[in-house]
Write a structure and sequence with these properties.
The protein contains three helices and no strands. The chain has 137 residues and is mostly helical.
Length: 137
Amino acid sequence: MDASPSKRSSKARSTEEETLQLADRTAGLGSNEKPADENGKPLFKDSLEAERFKELEEVVSSLRQELETLTQKKEASLSEKDMTLEKAHEMNEEHIDRLHRYNDIKDAGQILFGKLAELRGKVVKEMYEEYGVNLKD
């Protein structure tokens, strides 16, 4: 059932609103009490209308339960998305930390190759070739 307001007719919304108002007015009635309007006038003329009223009460109750279930699912989904975003943020931070460590180690290696090349009187490119390191590394 699609309960989106844009897909329901105004008559359907009006009927639902009337049903909810009626349910609110009759909530808490004892089994011997009959539903009445604001002026105390009985709402039903015969048992057929009373049966229809009972059916409507059941529909309203069912819709309220469905609304509660959907609300809980929505809240759980939002919470799940927040957890997913939080996990993604943590993974991103961890990746950035690893990149920083990699860059620090790479810089240290380049400094060592530079010092070693200087001691041996060679250029750094020759040192990379001697140790089998790709210049792009």
